[in-house]
Amino acid sequence: MGVADPGSGGGADDLSASSSFLGEVTISSISAWNASLVGEESNVSLQLNAFVEFEYSGRTFVYWAQTVEELDTGNGSTSFFDNVWNASSVPVPELSPTAISGKGSVASFGNESYYGYAPSCLVLGACITLTYPSNITLRLNTSLSGSGQPEVEFAFDDGYGFQTFDTVKFVFATGLTEAPDFVVSDSLQAASCPRCYGDVELILGGPSGGAQTALNATTEMELGLLWWNGNNYESIPEAIDHGLATAEGIGNVVETLVNSTAGGPLASLTNGSGAFETLWTAASTSTLEVSADTGSTGGSLSVDGSAPLDFAGTTVTVVLVPQIYDLSVVSGHSTYPLGPFTLSPGEELTLEVGAPPVVFVPTGLPSTTPWTVTIGAQTLTGTGNLTFGETVGNYTYTVGSVSGYAATPSSGTIAVTASGATVPIHWASTAKSWAQQIEALLVLPIGPVRLYVILIIVVVAGLVAAAISSVTRRPVEPWHHPPS
Fold first, then answer.
1. Cβ atoms < 10 Å from Cβ of 226
2. How far is Cα 293 from Cα 199, in angstroms, rounded to an integer?
3. Which pLDDT value is given to residue 451?
4. How far is CA 244 from the centre of its chain?
């Protein structure tokens, strides 16, 4: 159980390829037990698994890479290791020193060969004892070596910074000019390839060797899976609560969708009887893209005051659980507050900063009421000021309707200069007071309806006056001197 992108939706939002994945784990408490795992009865594994693919000599090669932490839930002791398995659907060189190199070695499991390595305790954080709550991050990177060989880096961070403990090179493939990728694809699912399931996964399971275990006491933990989109790490676009490729498993688990302090989707694991479920899709989350046209590359995005998310280039993209978010971007030496925005399920919101700001300022509208403005093909929905980034020029805009209020103006044209533009939008309540409703009735055309209304008003006024005059008041008694 865990969080995985199955790559099975077939839509444009499916994750296809990336050079890096992060598996982020927060453990508040955990306990597991399987008496048949002699010597490892209380052990579990946390696995970040992905398929790396590259082209060489006119053929496609695929390998399954794993960064694994093994945890003894009884005493909190930890250890790490990596594995690489052949997942190509065509004949490939055996996993041997002539095909693959790293700090580890090739071994056999059943009728398969695999590569594996475990770092020594001299590596920072490799053999620590966890105290809870604890945060662990597993990482897989892939790239080309200096000689054009595909390689995979295995790393973890459990409080001592990222430790890259092994780098595996596929030495039979040299002189490549196109970098390898981790792929999430249905095309890997071949009957002749038992491990070709095509997903990327962060999994909690038995310790190793296909072992199964189960939670046996209070467990509270959260798992998040992120991919490098070329500018920043963002959550996978869709997720199920179990891995497809790994053989290890765990029972007595219930998973639910929660959001991180920065709004990203996470899988929450607790004890209980659960079933395989979809955790989120592109239709149930929101996608936010901020383009920073500031003349600088790189920066950071803060969501609801969370720890800044660094990005390279000029664009940052995040997947968020739908709700209201307060956003700000730091780019160059400037901070750009974007204000609160209401994100809806399935929404893809694009914001611009750095270009001349076009600020729509509402008055007369409650500060918690969302409203909408559209300029061209871009629509912003939020509370308070709505800020666009536009180049110099003339633009038309429209203001969306809000129940119970009318906007003035509701549309118009703005001229954006180098310093931007400010557009005040006044909102007036469309609800009428009693006096306004009576006034509207009194201006009805002369006829039976108007006379009938006037008669009702006169009768009601008379009844009110009579009621007031009938109120008994207590007289004020004169002041008396006390008897002498």
1. 22
2. 35
3. 56
4. 22
